[in-house]
């Protein structure tokens, strides 16, 4: 197991190095931020001085190595626009996105998996058909449209829930969180629902497909022959068997939503990372873009690592294969 | 006359599929006494497994027991509500399946799976449950059972895995075990061991068995009586030795002839010509007629079940008993 972990860690580092180089090159190919930052009528010497201050006059590979050296020390540079350390900027926005994402992915899993198991267990029931119709809807309706409809219905027409913002927050562990106050929760509900719909549909599909397949196996029939109740079979045998694909998708969804909740955050004016990255792209705020993309890559690498380790915990056959 | 341990009469289990009604089990009757081993033998698709499932009420839609009765010590099981059936499964009648790789859950430890089976019928503490599982595993010949409880199925060999399944079935000391080809998926040497051990275990505890197999050689080494099944119906029944010596039904004869022991060395094994008919389109008369050498015009009508003392058969032209 230790050998496996070390090997995976080295792989992860290699992936991160390659990713950072690609991101660095890619972002620097997009355009020159100085065009936006410095007024065209500024005198040459001031222009040169600003360029030198940001280190943009040096060769690209020097810039990259300097950047890499700084990153290793936890310094991602300063934002051109906000003129503050990028890491602080990103970490300041992260909690908002984190709580939105967790609410959406956890909610989708906790609701979707039981619904999917039910739909897979009794595929012919009317309830199962309704669940499946719901999941088709969740798959096919675009997120931005659902977001607008949610706002129109619950915020504008009914006036039950706020249309945007984070609402009241409470400080915990040094940052502000919405989910700890009633007002914050009411702000969180609609955007979380908006984000969760697609994931809910996916979790339902996954759980249903797995359950249907497993219900037909001898494992279930043998458990029945031993006198186990159906609920016991579902809880202990089926749930454990379908856990592997669900954990995978959970991890991937968590990562991709953390990174790309852009549409929902924009519609609901949720002050998270998505909003930050959109702004940084329009302003060609390179350090923010680079840091953001590298952190996203890091996030995915970490999640994949955790999922791999969870596999080993969930499936004893994997454990043997890796340690042998 | 006393009530038999298990009395099956006119059992019909049909599958209502889109293509039509599959009469997988069609009018099967037999009785089972304590300690007795019944061998249920027939080609693949003859309805043996469905018969076994029917005894436990385990037939899933589109299948249904459409007629007949299964009485356990006089108590009717057909039509019993599920909770009452569940109380019978595993405690009165247990079942062992063909492939232990498929029956055991690969992601649960053996102890956990056995614990679930134990708790299906008894409220026991964790420690007591472990002790019971260790005892059951030891009884089926698993060495160092205490340590093996925390192992996963893939960490056992095929034979050991089947022993785990058998131990699970024996947890509640059921009166009847339905063993559905429990040795078919195993190596030949292990087959013989398991066969022998199961026979010993059931003999010691007076457990009755329905031993299902497509292999006449295997069944005849354990069974007291043989039931020969063809296309969902019983075609012959009798004490094992007698059926082997003087089969009455041409199908039983065919099964015997296709055994390696029956052939002269060097000759090809004699196979029964043709294959199992589709249960969707059975001929009105004897379903074996198209494959039978002794067929006549009479075979277009259904042959009756002829009982003759200890034996019975369903054939218009039974083979004569040699003098
Ligand atoms: N779920 C089902 N739907 C439709 N038909 C079924 C179903 N299950 C079983 N059958 C039919 O019932 C018949 C008997 O099947 P069964 O499994 O009892 O045969 P078997 O004698 O156990 O054969 P084998 O030796 O291959 O295990 C088969 O023809 C099969 O097609
Ligand atoms: Mg079978």
Topology:
The complex is a heterodimer of chains A (324) and B (323).
Chain A: H1 2-30, H2 34-37, H3 44-53, H4 60-72, H5 86-121, H6 126-140, H7 143-157, E1 170-172, E2 175-177, H8 182-215, H9 218-225, H10 230-260, H11 262-267, H12 273-282, H13 286-314, H14 316-323
Antiparallel strand pairs in A: 1-2
Helix pairs in contact in A: 1-13, 5-6, 5-8, 5-10, 5-13, 6-8, 7-8, 8-10, 9-10, 10-13, 12-13, 13-14
Chain B: E1 6-17, E2 20-32, E3 37-41, H1 48-55, E4 63-72, E5 75-76, H2 82-88, E6 93-96, H3 100-103, H4 110-119, H5 126-139, H6 145-148, H7 158-170, E7 176-180, H8 188-205, E8 208-213, H9 216-222, E9 225-230, E10 233-239, H10 240-245, H11 250-257, E11 306-308, E12 311-313
Parallel strand pairs in B: 3-8, 3-9, 6-7, 7-8
Antiparallel strand pairs in B: 1-2, 1-4, 4-5, 9-10, 10-12, 11-12
Please explain how this structure is put together.
The complex is a heterodimer of chains A (324) and B (323). Chain A has 324 residues and is an all-alpha fold. Chain A contains 14 helices and two strands. The longest helix of chain A has 36 residues. Chain A starts with a helix and ends with a helix. With 323 residues, chain B is of the alpha/beta class. Helices cover 31% and strands 24% of the residues of chain B. Chain B is built from eleven helices and twelve strands. Chain B has an eight-stranded mixed sheet with strand order 6-7-8-3-9-10-12-11, with helices on both faces. The longest helix of chain B is centred in the middle third of the chain and has 18 residues. Chain B is globular. Chain B starts with 5 loop residues before the first strand and ends in a 10-residue tail after the last strand. Chains A and B meet through helix 9, helix 10 and helix 14 of A and helix 2, helix 4 and helix 7 of B. Adenosine-5'-triphosphate binds next to strand 1, strand 2 and helix 1 of chain B.
């Amino acid at each position: 197991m230790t050998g496996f972990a070390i090997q995976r860690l080295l792989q992860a580092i290699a992936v991160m190095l390659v990713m950072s180089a690609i991101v660095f090159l890619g972002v620097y190919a997009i355009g020159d931020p100085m065009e936006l930052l410095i007024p065209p009528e500024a005198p040459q010497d001031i222009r040169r001085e600003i360029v030198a201050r940001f280190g943009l006059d040096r060769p690209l590979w020097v810039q990259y190595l300097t950047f890499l050296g700084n990153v290793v020390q936890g310094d991602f540079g300063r934002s051109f626009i906000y003129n503050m350390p990028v890491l602080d900027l990103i970490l300041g926005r992260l909690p908002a996105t984190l709580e939105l994402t967790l609410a959406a992915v956890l909610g989708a899993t906790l609701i979707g998996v039981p619904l999917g198991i039910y739909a897979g267990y009794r595929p012919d029931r009317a309830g199962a058909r309704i669940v499946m119709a719901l999941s088709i809807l969740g798959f096919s309706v675009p997120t931005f449209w659902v977001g607008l409809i949610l706002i129109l219905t619950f915020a504008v027409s009914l006036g039950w829930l706020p249309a945007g913002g984070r609402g009241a927050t409470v400080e915990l562990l040094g940052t502000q969180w919405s989910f700890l106050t009633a007002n914050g929760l009411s702000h969180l509900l609609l955007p979380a629902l908006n984000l969760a719909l697609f994931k809910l549909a996916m979790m339902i599909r996954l759980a249903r497909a797995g359950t249907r397949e497993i219900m037909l196996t001898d494992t279930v029939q043998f458990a029945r022959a031993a006198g186990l109740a159906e609920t016991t079979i579902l809880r202990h045998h089926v749930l454990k068997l379908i856990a592997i694909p669900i954990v995978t998708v959970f991890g991937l969804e968590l990562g991709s939503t953390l990174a790309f909740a852009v549409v929902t955050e924009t519609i609901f004016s949720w002050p998270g990372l998505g909003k930050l990255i959109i702004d940084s792209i329009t302003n060609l705020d390179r350090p923010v873009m680079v840091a953001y993309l590298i952190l996203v890559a890091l996030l995915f690498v970490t999640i994949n690592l955790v999922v791999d380790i969870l596999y080993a915990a969930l499936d004893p056959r994997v454990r043997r294969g890796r340690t042998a | 006359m006393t009530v038999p341990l298990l009395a099956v009469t006119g059992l019909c289990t049909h599958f209502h599929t889109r293509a039509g009604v599959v009469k997988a089990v069609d009018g099967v009757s037999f009785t089972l006494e304590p300690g007795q081993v019944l061998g249920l033998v027939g080609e693949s698709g003859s309805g043996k497994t469905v018969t076994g499932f029917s005894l436990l009420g385990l037939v899933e839609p589109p299948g249904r027991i459409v007629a007949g009765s299964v009485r356990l010590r006089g108590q009717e099981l057909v039509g019993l509500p599920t909770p009452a059936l569940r109380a019978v499964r595993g405690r009165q009648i247990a079942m062992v399946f063909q492939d232990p790789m498929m029956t055991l859950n690969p992601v649960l430890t053996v102890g956990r799976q056995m614990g679930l089976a134990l708790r299906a019928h008894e409220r026991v503490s964790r420690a007591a449950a472990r002790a019971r599982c260790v005892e059951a595993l030891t009884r089926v010949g698993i060495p160092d059972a205490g340590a093996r409880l925390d192992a996963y199925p893939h960490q056992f060999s095929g034979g050991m895995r089947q022993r785990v399944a058998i131990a699970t079935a024996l947890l509640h000391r059921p009166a009847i075990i339905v063993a559905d080809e429990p040795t078919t998926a195993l190596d030949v040497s292990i087959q013989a061991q398991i066969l022998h051990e199961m026979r010993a275990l059931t003999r010691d505890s007076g457990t009755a068995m329905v031993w299902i197999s497509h292999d006449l050689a295997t069944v005849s080494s354990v069974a007291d009586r043989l039931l020969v099944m063809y296309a969902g119906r019983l075609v012959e029944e009798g004490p094992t030795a007698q059926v082997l010596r003087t089969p009455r039904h041409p199908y039983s004869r065919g099964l015997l002839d296709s055994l390696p022991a029956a052939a002269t060395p060097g000759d090809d094994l004699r196979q029964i010509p043709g294959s199992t008919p589709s249960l969707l389109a059975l001929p009105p008369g004897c379903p074996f007629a198209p494959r039978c050498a002794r067929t006549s015009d009479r075979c277009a009508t259904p042959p009756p079940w002829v009982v003759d003392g200890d034996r019975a058969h369903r054939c218009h032209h039974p083979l004569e008993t040699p003098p």
